[in-house]
Design goal:
With about 110 residues, the chain is mostly beta strands. It contains two helices and six strands, in the order E-E-E-H-E-E-E-H. The protein is elongated, with a radius of gyration of 15 Å.
């Protein structure tokens, strides 16, 4: 059974086709079976900024730790008629120990 552990906020940057802008994001941590961890990442980005940089479906979040994490727009291709703020999200299950988790996501060390 999965259990929700904690949420935290971070400051990083969003990279769309080599163009970078500061961004805040939220990470949430769930502990799965055994020693597995699942980190959910969510951020909001301005629709017009994304469109002007050629955004289609994915970008890269540069997190506080410097990790480059692909983030996606789940609702298909971005459209000028979409809401002014676009949610980008990702799931990361690559951390297999608490040490790995804290190294990649220092946001949880608070």
């Amino acid at each position: 059974m999965e259990k929700h552990i904690v949420k935290a906020d971070g400051n990083g940057a969003i990279d769309v086709n080599g163009q970078v802008s500061p961004v805040t994001y939220t990470v949430s941590l769930k502990q799965g079976k055994g020693h597995s961890y699942e980190v959910g990442i969510r951020l909001m980005a301005p629709r017009d900024w994304l469109l002007q940089r050629g955004f289609e479906r994915d970008a890269v979040l540069v997190s506080q730790s410097g990790a480059r994490i692909p983030v996606y727009h789940d609702d298909g291709r971005l459209d000028p008629a979409d809401t002014i703020s676009i949610e980008l999200a990702a799931r990361d299950d690559s951390c297999t120990s608490e040490v790995d988790l804290m190294r990649k996501y220092p946001e949880f060390d608070g």
